[in-house]
Write a structure and sequence with these properties.
108 residues, Nuclear Transport Factor 2, Chain: A
Length: 108
């Protein structure tokens, strides 16, 4: 499953393999309705390059997953510094089209 692959590559901080799974027109949005936070693969790449550099021990733990048609809803716990001091939970809603992730909506 493509979402599990991206989850594994995210945890490995394997940026090239991670990026292969996203469409050129990927959109990342915050669910509060404030509009897209990231639009396009170039901006997406820059954002995740910076995230992996700033948080080299960053990883996520999957707490629960629901799959409905072309959407995957993950409840995740993210560890920014490898310990518990910089953790948070979020829900990520992945939309898949043509074997690529085209959109992620985050609820934090």
């Amino acid at each position: 499953m493509i979402v599990q692959e991206q989850f594994d590559y995210y945890n490995e901080q394997n940026l090239p393999k991670f990026l292969e799974l996203f469409s050129e027109n990927v959109i990342v949005s915050n669910f509060n309705g404030s509009g897209p936070a990231i639009e396009g693969k170039e901006n997406f790449t820059t954002t995740y390059e910076r995230l992996f550099q700033d948080y080299p021990m960053n990883r996520a733990e999957l707490l629960h997953r629901i799959v409905i048609r072309n959407r995957v809803i993950d409840h995740e716990k993210v560890f920014r510094s490898g310990g518990t001091s910089a953790t948070f939970e979020c829900v990520a809603i992945y939309t898949i089209e043509n074997e690529k992730i085209v959109r992620i909506d985050f609820i934090k």
